Amino acid sequence: MWVSAKPSISNISSLSFNSHQKPFRILPHISLPCDLSQSSQTTQVYCGVRELRGRIDAIKNTHKITEAMKLVAAARVRRAQEAVINGRPFSETLVEMLYHINEQLQLEDIDVPLTNVRPIKKVALVVITGDRGLCGNFNNLVIKKAETRLSELKNLGLDYTVISVGKKGNSYFRRRDNIPVDRFIEGGSFPTVKEAQAIADDVFSLFVSEEVDKVELVYTKFMSLVKSDPVIHTLLPLSPRGVVCDVNGNCVDAMEDEFFRLTTKEGKFFVERDSVRAKMELSPLMQFEQDPIQILDAMMPLYLNSQILKALQESLASELASRMNAMSNATDNAVELKKTLSIAYNRGRQAKITSELLEIVAGAEALTQLD
């Protein structure tokens, strides 16, 4: 039965008139909502005052939990953000230096396994997700990006395998029997060099043994506290855009590959940067004191570790920022819902008291008439 939570004057008058006719009639129960639907004048209701009181208490507890989770995420995201900002200059400078050295060594007969470009037959995707939920659509966006890339590779007729990092990604890919997974890795509370080393060792063994011909990172790039984007980053081999092709000569690079911020411009390697700083240029007449193979062999493991550690740090900062925003929205929604339910509760309580007063008045008038 639909009733209004705000009794009008006409309703009270009709109840009083009917009470004169039948003073001991049981009045209908006025119920209040568990499910609210706002209208222009009144709020329609479904359940009683007791249910509303219980729901308001539950929302208060939820508000306390989401508020605490927002504060914890805000405290942790500061540290993660500092790690990302402090690590980016080293990572970008290392890649730029490695590219310049690799460019100058192209004309020499040097065999470095991690820089060899061969026809692509199989691609490995390192997918980095979070370990927890309650962070909005953070994990869904990364997995969706990985699924899109896997579909592109499948349309190109290439084989692929996945290295999953993070509990959410692990649980997702375990349920997908059609996606081959080379390894499941669970991350820690904060990215460490040891964790990045474990992933780098697996990537190194797959590429050097020629089980895969290309390795790509799929992670969430931290832009700001309110924005983060899932990106694809080519890890191996080191090559400019369009060089890595399949056996038919088709380019297999992703259209929005993050790695190709380090790309070619006018025939030279070029680095696009958000901040302006002096570009590092190596003289073409420069001679290496050590054997170039030794230099690359020493720099490539450092390159792998730094790039994977950077991706882990960016992913963690994005996850914490997303969780902070999600819990902030949840807290605001809890406050608004508690306010709405409190209004409905007060209206229902007022309607119930009004109904009881009418019953008392009607009973008193009936006794007066009997006397």
Word description of this protein:
The chain is α/β, with parallel strands linked by helices and 371 residues long. 51% of the residues lie in helices and 14% in strands. The chain is built from 6 helices and 9 strands, in the order H-E-E-H-E-H-E-H-E-H-E-E-E-E-H. The protein has helices at residues 9-21, 49-104, 138-155, 167-174, 193-208, 292-370; strands spanning 37-38, 43-44, 122-128, 159-165, 181-185, 214-224, 227-236, 262-265, 268-271. Strands 5-4-3-6-7 form a 5-stranded mixed β-sheet, with helices on both faces. A two-stranded antiparallel sheet has the order 1-2. It is elongated, with a radius of gyration of 33 Å.
Write the layout of secondary structure elements.
Layout: H1 9-21, E1 37-38, E2 43-44, H2 49-104, E3 122-128, H3 138-155, E4 159-165, H4 167-174, E5 181-185, H5 193-208, E6 214-224, E7 227-236, E8 262-265, E9 268-271, H6 292-370
Parallel strand pairs: 3-4, 3-6, 4-5
Antiparallel strand pairs: 1-2, 6-7, 8-9
Membrane topology: Peripheral membrane protein
Subcellular location: Plastid, Chloroplast thylakoid membrane
InterPro entries: ATP_synth_F1_gsu (IPR000131), ATP_synth_F1_gsu_CS (IPR023632)
